[in-house]
Amino acid sequence: MAAGRPVLLVIDGVIREVVEKAGCGIPIPPGDARALAQAAVKLADNPELAAKMGAAGRRAVEKDYPREKYANQFALILEEMT
């Protein structure tokens, strides 16, 4: 998402909710190779859709997961461990 590329998500869980909420990719049922191939072709055949999804993912990362915030939290955890 941070790279500004559309996501082809082949796992379930919380990350699926993140991708769906952001509108930044295509969730695929785990183990469904045909659906994965179809999703890849869909994005390859529609560069505008791929760009739109990629930009949506980048915006979501910048808004919801700012690097500075998480880097500071990680630094605090490391300090507490020493």
Strand content: 5-15%
Distance between the termini: 33 Å
Order of strands, widest sheet: 1-2
Quaternary class:
single chain
What is the tally of helical segments? 4
Domains, number:
1
Low-confidence stretches: none
Can you give the helix content as a percent range?
55-70%
Structural class of the secondary structure composition? mainly alpha
For the biggest sheet, the summary is: 2 strands, parallel
The rough form would be described as elongated
| Element order: H for helix, E for strand | EHEHHH
Alpha carbon gyration radius: 16 Å
pLDDT averaged over residues:
94
Q: What's the total number of strands?
A: 2
Key traits:
elongated; two-stranded parallel ribbon; 4 helices; mainly alpha; 82 residues
Please, could you describe this protein's structure?
With 82 residues, the protein is mainly alpha-helical. The protein has one domain (7-81). The protein is 67% helix and 7% strand. The chain has four helices and two strands. The chain has helices at residues 14-22, 33-45, 47-64, 67-81, and strands at 7-9, 25-27. A two-stranded parallel ribbon has the order 1-2. The longest helix is centred in the last third of the chain and has 18 residues, at 47-64. The model has no long low-confidence stretch (mean pLDDT 94).
